[in-house]
Amino acid sequence: MRRKIYKRMLDWKNKSKGTTALLIEGARRIGKSYIVREFAAKEYKSSILVDFNDVDDELLTIFEQYLHNRNDFFMRLSVYFGVKLYERESVIIFDEVQLYPKARAAIKYLVADGRYDYIETGSLVSLRQNVKDIVIPSEEEAIDMFPMDFEEFLWAMDEEMLVDFMRSQYESTSPMGALHRKAYDLLRLYMIVGGMPQAVLAYRDTQDFDEVDRAKRAILRLYRNDISKYAYQTETKVTRIFDDIPSQLQRHERKFRLSAIQADGKMRNYEDAFFWLDDSRVVNICYNATEPNVGLRLNMDRTTLKCYMGDTGLLIAHTFDENAIAGTQLYRKLLLGKLEINQGMLVENLVAQMLRAAGHKLFFFSRSDRDEAENRMEIDFLIRKSAVTSRHNIIPIEVKSTNRYTYVSLDKFRKKYSEYVTSPIVLHSSDVMTKDGVTFLPLYMAMFL
Hints:
The protein is α/β, with parallel strands linked by helices. Helix content is 45%, strand content 17%.
């Protein structure tokens, strides 16, 4: 399955020329190891992959005794794996490097040696925690990796031509016409299957939603185990937040309410737990920006946030976890929009996932005022336009899951913050159109923003 990160890895190889190591960071089970193996096989004459999740005593001895003696280290590593290394034509991969911090610390010296390229992969949570006794190498160049985005999902479904057409219509702000229904149905399928490679592969190969659900639940079990293993001293709080995500998103006002999990819960007591989940990429945190100017991060209110699942397919499996398997019938009803559930929570989570994969940090805008109705407004997402100017840098985005809606908050927001706002967007279930200075885009075009 094609992944966009491959091109970024190739850019690193061509530009770095051995002066830095590449670190692929991301959540568990998003395909880091797979893409690194594929890249090494296609772009190098030979490669050695050291999986620190599966090393024996002999291999550990090579690292313990010879890591700082480069000639012996490379010779013994080559013999152990039965792979000949070629200067400037071979790559050594440290997979799950967080499990052996000494290898990560040695990157500084291995890169300085200059003979080979180095790629590391790791889960963010344990990468952050397993650095107490090492100096993090400045020679690392990090790339974030996410679950498969909608475009990658369409590639996996052999719909590359549809992707190209969607992009051309987005760029020209032109309707999709007869192909809108097909694109929207595929978006619903993506929402249900999600972007975890195991789930996508299960659907592509079997079209069996039971197999898809099994794949997703295995990942959720892995995440729960990670919480128990790595969420030091915050395990209970992290678990409470994780378990309550579906019910929090089900509410019309999706700001996370700590009172729902603890009567006297205060954000200062839960900050570390939210940070852990965000850092693990299990969730996508969206913060309230108190002023919609170009420095959204400078106006971030850390006490008011929304907590989305990092993958919407996992959100569905997490939501319907009363039984071991959600079942084909439930998935088909979701696909047809015939299940009694707040579709808005799934759609908004999906847009958050698509914006995050497109490289945006997540912010929303919320303001309440008991006395002045004109000051009460909530905008689902705020993003900054790519080319910053002196004014009009912020794009407000409203997400609508149906064709029947109003956008009163957007009108009030545009009026109050006219000097900040440019090109407001409503993402909805219908085709492309423009009206009253607002661009209406089908939900699937969120991936192009």
